[in-house]
Amino acid sequence: MPLLDDVPPRPHTAGLRAFELILILVVLTEYWLRALPKWGQLAPAYNVHLAAASLLCLLALRPQWRRAALGALAVSHAVLVWREFPATGNHAYLEVVFFLLATLLSPDDDGDAAIYTRAVRWLVIVVFFWSGVQKLVHGFWFDGSYLAFSLDSAGFRPVLGLLIPADELTRLATYTGEVGDGPYIVRSFPLLALSNGTWLLELALAPLLLWPKTRTAAALIGVILVAAIQVGARELFFGLVFANAILLFLPGTTHRRLVLPVAALLALMIFSRLGALPEAVFH
Amino acid sequence: MTKHRIVTALLAALTAWPLVQLALVARYDVSPWKLAGWGMYSTPRFDRVGMEVYGRPASGGPEEQLASPSAAVRDEATQFLESYRWLRDLAPRERFVDAILADNPQWDQVRVTVFRPDLDARTGMVVMIRAEYAHPRR
Hints:
The complex is a heterodimer of chains A (283) and B (138).
Chain A: H1 13-35, H2 44-60, H3 66-84, H4 90-104, H5 110-138, H6 145-150, H7 157-160, H8 166-173, H9 189-210, H10 212-233, H11 236-246, H12 254-257, H13 259-274
Helix pairs in contact in A: 1-2, 1-11, 1-13, 2-3, 3-4, 4-5, 4-11, 5-9, 9-10, 10-11
Chain B: H1 2-28, E1 50-57, E2 64-65, H2 71-87, H3 94-103, E3 107-119, E4 126-136
Antiparallel strand pairs in B: 1-2, 1-3, 3-4
Helix pairs in contact in B: 2-3
């Protein structure tokens, strides 16, 4: 674990505080965005979770209540994860683990802060590594068939469409994912390069994030990779939770300076869901 | 020191868990997308799942298809399919089967056939995957 420390050492408190603040804002927004379009149709139990999470997120922002509120939030969120299992999104597991770490460790204590930072960084490496392994094991990224299949997704289509020759694009556009459709196999070199480059990059990011000399560049590439996948898939919450963790690799005040832009993005998502801004589809 | 040990144990478990998840995917056809194995986007995702239910009459004769399930069976079917969507062979079926057998006392066995589309990694074609589960009356 000391491999994950900064060389030379630097204080972690400000970065961890920014990490916690963004995490709390993201989770609070997530709870409310799930509720907003469905008032009146929500299960009573979800209303309880929503009320508890809202109160606990606000309390967690106050230093004297921080640890107790984050601990209660970890329990409340874990119960929601359990209730919704197995449909639970993977980011929810990360959120529970991050809340547990925040409960156990204080950003203001030097020893705790070092362990806290190492733990979040290690989890980033674990997620990138296994994400690359999964793409490798299941085989849909070797022949580009996953990306070819994703042409059906409105989020991926504009970019992926540029990488495929017109005749292949025409053929793939006739498929609708029905039984008998295919083959979703492409010969386009740019698409195959992107497909294989993605899992290779995920695997490569694990050691590159460990090595201090490549850490900052790897973290920036990681954020860009996550943003590209998540924006295409419109799975913004996994992207926000995970990118927030990646930012803990960056030196200086970058993390702290991103709190306001993230808060602004979350506000835009809420206004969009409320109808005050043009509708944007995200999960 | 205790905190350090707790965090180390937690991280070790989370680091190794995806191996278990991969084993569950291979053995029980669990969706790679779920269960914190970090396999989102590793396989195409189809949300459609269909099902047929057949019962074997205790008095003998050919199987009968369940054509008009009661509201209680429909509720259990919905819950089973939601779970099946991700857990496949590991999706709990007992409550669903018990509800069917309670509604159909003349049957001594229930056979559930679940089908879903999937992309064949070898051919790149969309194919229909079928799974069958037979449950004798307990």
